[in-house]
């Protein structure tokens, strides 16, 4: 069995196809637009680890299904308003673990990544923004909806990424107000590299991926390593602290036991 065959169909919420070393990873829920929840939150970190460990992956394209990238949650969502019972440290530890794996394993993928944002992304928009090239459909938009607008501390990495990408003041405003950035506005602010008609998005992603894939393998890998080094440092410094404060803040919802 090849390395790719060992993980390509392993994950319920990720569809994978690879041609000439270019791996397209499509986020979905039962073939439709991904609904965020405990399943994806647990799966994606492990999937990114498998993808990063496969030496035959030369470029990664990440996209979604339908008219949105990630816009809705399901009943298992870890970022929704929480039930009226306190969360134990052991329960939060699982969320903490999955959240760390999600972002750190994404950054540990040592080949260039292209996000093809096929529509609105209001949940974990940082997954797209952490890619090296960000393309967006004209109707796409970017928001951090699950955290502060829902009474949660924006501490699971968004506190690192958005002030870095937008600038410290605009990033804090974005997180504290639940601001929605249109694709065009995101392009103006440096979040998005290209805005395209939806029917041209994937073709452009594959065109760019093919261009990148012409480089020698170690050039591809070491360029990604170099260009993500600062992001990794910031995550190592701040992600655990942010998740701890998010967990403490979440417990403030709940009455004493």
Topology:
Elements: H1 3-7, E1 14-19, E2 22-27, E3 34-36, H2 38-53, E4 59-64, E5 70-73, H3 89-107, E6 113-117, H4 126-129, E7 133-137, E8 141-142, H5 158-166, H6 168-177, E9 181-182, H7 183-188, E10 194-196, H8 201-213, H9 217-251
Parallel strand pairs: 2-4, 3-5, 4-6, 6-7, 7-10
Antiparallel strand pairs: 1-2, 8-9
Could you provide a short overview of the structure?
With 257 residues, this protein is an alpha/beta fold. Helix content is 46%, strand content 16%.
Record keyword descriptors for this entry:
9 helices, 10 strands, alpha/beta, 2-enoyl-CoA Hydratase, Chain A, domain 1, two-stranded parallel sheet
Describe this structure in words.
The protein is an alpha/beta fold and 257 residues long. It has one domain: 2-enoyl-CoA Hydratase, Chain A, domain 1. Helix content is 46%, strand content 16%. It contains 9 helices and 10 strands. The strands form 3 sheets. Strands 1-2-4-6-7-10 form a 6-stranded mixed sheet. Strands 3-5 form a two-stranded parallel ribbon. β1 and β2 form a beta hairpin. The longest helix is centred in the last third of the chain and has 35 residues. The chain is globular and about 50 Å long.
What is the mean predicted local confidence, pLDDT? 93
Shape label: globular
CATH class: Alpha Beta
What's the total helix number?
9
Q: What is the number of domains?
A: 1
Q: What is the CA-based Rg, rounded?
A: 18 Å
Using the coordinates shown, work out and report the CATH topology.
2-enoyl-CoA Hydratase, Chain A, domain 1
In whole angstroms, how far apart are the ends?
A: 52 Å
CATH architecture: Alpha-Beta Complex
What is the spatial order of strands in the main beta sheet? 1-2-4-6-7-10
How many runs of DSSP E, i.e. beta strands? 10
- The parts where pLDDT drops under 50 for at least 5 residues are 77-84
Query: What is the SS-derived class?
Result: alpha/beta
How is the biggest beta sheet arranged?
A: 6 strands, mixed
CATH superfamily: 2-enoyl-CoA Hydratase, Chain A, domain 1
Which percent band covers the strand fraction? 15-25%
Helix content: 40-55%
Q: SSE order, as H and E?
A: HEEEHEEHEHEEHHEHEHH
